[in-house]
Specification:
The structure holds two protein chains of two kinds. Chain A is α/β, with parallel strands linked by helices. Helices cover 37% and strands 22% of the residues of chain A. Chain A starts with 5 loop residues before the first helix and ends with a helix. Chain B contains ten helices and no strands. Classes of the chains: A alpha/beta, B mainly alpha.
Chain lengths: 272, 235
């Protein structure tokens, strides 16, 4: 909890401070000895991962590496077979959940207007009616979606839907923002809009954890990299260093665009 | 053949003149079935949502039971309510047998499993899609139930209308607990049965036409609700 308070509040109006302070912290999100096995295959095997501070960490690796599973574990959506997840040093709880934003690959929008989607999330997090309305409008404006405010959310285009889902997550002013391949199948303009929003969030104090298998995208946005392969985190560190000199054969092969080979025997049958 | 022609003419007369007896019977039918659906909805929708969301041992048995009870024979429901409300029954002292209240109770029991089972199905399907997102919002069971019920509103209204269609068209339950008393508990279906047996075909046919019109209108409403919901991608 190195930067408690300072970064999460930076750049926001004083009026918001009381609200921010009243909410329990979700950072650092810590996973320890996380194991998940299915059918004798170890899908996830992570000794320790600490998500804290701010900035943009990209969790990358080939399909089936366990990136999404790890992200869902850390967000308390999937219970690991063994190991522990803590948020701000405590067991994950509902009060902290709202401080951890999550954007799914396929946006889950409520059957309401775009504005009501954001308002409902804010209301669920305990924001008053008046403030929720105001912040919903601000969030829509920030995402350049104000003109679609009254539209049924599920009638928006794919790109608009994902931008709305991101705006909704941002409206909750998350300490941590998890994104699970949010730009797959979107047009370049939407991808650029979403990347710009999360880069700005990372710079203004939010910790962003972004899952992708697209190494070009990772190069564009990452400050740090976690490289996963076969359920394990093989590399972690600064993005620049990782892209210049990946330390493992799997990462080199992945960056070279090769298919990463079958897992070695040392990874294969180690059930938790 | 001549009689039948006369009957048709008379039927037409009754409908056009808005015969007072006819209106009273139609009114009571709508009132009894409407109230029964309202009560069944107030209990059945939250019940269905609860079964959809909760995870407890034996849940599957409740799901099976609810689905099976959708086909409850109205006469059996009528008999059960009759036993409850008859003078010797546990609720006998209330003295509500052969009143519209008894009919509302019987129809509410008849409709409740339909509403609950359809709500359960609808909300469980939607929960599959919503659950992770709602958990990320930090929502508890109560918040999830209210969110899901609101977002399933069009499908739930359809379930209520289906329940209404069943209630307004059934004879078995209302005739047993209502007794088909003139000006007190006579509804469309029971009157049709009685008047037909008495040979008063015109009155029976007039009511039959009204009943079919109402059931058709309800179905039209269901259809247009679906259409509206689909158009705004809310279905």
């Amino acid at each position: 909890m190195l930067d408690r308070g300072n970064t999460s509040v930076a750049g926001r109006p004083i009026a918001d401070l009381a609200f921010e302070e009243a909410r329990p912290e979700v950072r650092p999100v810590v996973g320890q000895n996380i194991r998940i096995a299915r059918d004798g295959r170890l899908l996830l095997d992570v000794d320790e991962l600490v998500v804290s501070g701010s900035g943009m960490t990209v969790l990358m690796g080939p399909n089936g590496a366990g990136k999404s599973l790890l992200l869902r574990c850390l967000a308390n959506l999937v219970a690991p077979d063994s190991g522990t997840i803590t948020w701000g040093g405590c067991q994950p709880d509902r009060a902290r959940a709202a401080r951890l934003g999550f954007v799914f690959q396929r946006p889950v929008l409520l059957r309401r207007s775009a504005r009501a989607n954001i308002r409902h999330a804010l209301r669920a997090a305990g924001v008053s009616r008046g403030e929720a309305a105001e912040r919903a409008d601000q969030a829509l404006a920030a995402a350049r979606l104000s003109h679609l405010s009254r539209m049924p959310a599920r009638r928006l285009s794919g790109g608009e839907q994902q931008r709305l889902a991101l705006a909704r997550a941002m409206a909750l002013r998350p300490e941590c923002l998890f994104l699970d391949e949010p730009t797959v199948n979107l047009d370049p303009a939407s991808v650029a809009a979403i990347e710009a929003t999360i880069i700005a969030a990372g710079r203004s104090g939010t910790k962003v954890l972004f899952v992708t298998h697209d190494s070009a995208q990772a190069r564009r946005i990452a400050t740090d990299i976690l490289f996963m392969h076969d359920g394990q985190i093989l590399e972690r560190g600064e993005a620049a260093r990782f892209f210049d000199a990946p330390g493992t054969a799997a990462a080199r092969a992945f960056l070279a665009g090769d298919l990463v080979g079958e897992p070695g025997p040392e990874h294969r049958v180690r059930t938790a | 053949m001549h009689d039948l022609t006369n009957a048709f003419a008379e039927t037409f007369g009754l409908l056009v003149s808005l015969d007072a007896d006819l209106l009273e019977i139609v009114g009571l039918s709508l009132w009894v079935s409407g109230l029964a659906v309202l009560i069944a909805g107030l209990i059945g929708v939250p019940l269905g949502a609860l079964v959809a969301i909760a995870r407890f041992p034996g849940r599957w048995a409740i799901v099976v039971l609810l689905n099976a009870m959708m086909g409850l024979p109205p006469v059996v429901v009528g008999l059960a309510v009759y036993l409850l409300l008859s003078r010797a029954g546990p609720l006998g002292p209330l003295g509500i047998l052969y009143t519209p209240t008894a009919m509302v109770i019987a129809q509410a029991i008849l409709v409740l499993p339909i509403v609950a089972a359809l709500s359960r199905q609808t909300i469980e399907d939607m929960k599959l899609e919503y659950e992770d997102q709602l958990r990320v919002f930090g929502m508890g069971p109560r918040g999830m139930v209210s969110t899901l019920i609101w977002d399933a509103r069009y499908s739930l209204m359809t379930a209520l209308l289906a329940g209404f269609g069943r209630a307004v068209a059934e004879v078995g339950a209302v005739i047993i607990v209502g007794g088909n008393i003139n000006h007190v508990t006579r509804v469309m279906t029971t009157t049709i049965a009685l008047e037909t047996s008495k040979g008063n075909l015109a009155f029976a046919m007039a009511l039959g036409l009204v009943l079919v019109t109402i059931v058709t209108a309800v179905n039209a409403l269901v259809f247009s609700l679906r259409h509206t919901a689909t158009r705004s991608a809310y279905a």
